[in-house]
Amino acid sequence: MIRIASVTAIPISILIASSAFAADQPVLKGPAAFGDWRADKPGVRRLIKPEDLPKPYVTKSASNSAGLADMPTGAKPQLPPGFSAELIASGIDNPRVVRVAPNGDLFVADSEANQIRVYRLAEGSAKPVENGVFAGNLNQPYGIAFYPPGDDPQWVYVANSDSIVRFAYRKGDLKASGEPETIVDNIPSNHHWTRDIVFSRDGKTLYLSVGSGSNVAEDMGKAPDGGLDAWLKSKPLGATWGSEDGRADVLAFDPDGKNGRIVATGLRNCSGMTIQPATGALWCVVNERDALGDNVPSEYATSIREGAFYGWPWYYIGNHEDPRHKGERPDLAGKATIPDVLMQAHSAPLNIAFYTGKDFPQEYQGDAFVALHGSWNRGNRTGYKVVRLLFKDGKPTGEYEDFMTGFVVSNGEVWGRPVGVAVANDGALIVTEDGNGTIWRITHGNSHS
């Protein structure tokens, strides 16, 4: 991408932390929820339901990638009142997933540099006292997980685009002490390459997300070898074949990489996973398909149910049939699981983290933060922000709220593209963005230095 240096025309209101807060505004519903970046600000809430989706092709399919501006001097994201953003690091090649080690170290996948970076912060501060490369010579690393879960992990697992490897680990290690051990190999890696991993709460299951190899299975073929009837008898509901065999799925393995199996199908690109602390449920954020119009289909976050089919490529958001596969799978009509939280189409959710810290106000407890990387297949830009999914008694309300905005500087330029979200041991929210390669620490009240 081209960095655009013409930042002098950027409105100052976009560059400083906003004092505007919209919690007292009505929730935007239906077509009113399909706005763009100009309406985004902390506190704006949206609720999108399956019945709100427009029909396909109401608008033309846009190609509207953002020009990348340099981060203006002194720029900070916009946050709700009482919150502050501090810069931990900048100039990183491609910071993506961030995960917090039990001792508080931040492990960051620097994907295009093929390495995992680590940052140790001074207590109560955004200032790294140590940082370096934990491991290099990887292959587009993305997901990171510590095993076993808990206070004393013995391994760091890393999901490359084509494999899962693990490194021996002792609490406080800033550099891998040995070579990686391959746990799972032969993962298909073209097109959607972001492989996330997470362990179940009891540590017995390793989950892996594998995105599709295409937008909407254009090259998969109409039927698998041996015929559809035979395929249906031997495969999970909604399983794909050919070039998409084993893709658009969430898979599960034992911690040693054995006993591989399909957990759920029809997830076009589950780029981020986490375990909900309150319930132990696995959650996914999913990038849906392109080229059906500005507002269809919605992106989503959802708990993953064993054996569930989420629609791709034949259906989306329940029983909406993709016109490009019309009439191909009547046997799947009505069988696609409807996701829990719908978000604006093409906003590109990449990671999710539940808030369990004590730094933020009580009403944030149990809610989830999602990083939206930003749209390209939309006439009016959306995404490029971190949103908060609202929960009540451990269940999603379906509403989500803008939390961290201000990365878009004009209709053609952005300076930040959020990717990773994680909750630090002190309750701060850690956010990575790969537009200008920065990492941020978000705190509330007087907890920042």
From TrEMBL:
Entry keyword set: Signal
Protein name: Sorbosone dehydrogenase family protein
Keyword Signal: yes
InterPro entries: 6-blade_b-propeller_TolB-like, Beta-prop_PDH, Quinoprot_gluc/sorb_DH_b-prop
Pfam family, one: TrAA12
Domain Pyrroloquinoline quinone-dependent pyranose dehydrogenase beta-propeller: 78-293, 336-443
Zinc is among the record's keywords: no
Signal peptide: 1-22
TM helices/strands, residue ranges: none
Organism annotation: Mesorhizobium loti R88b
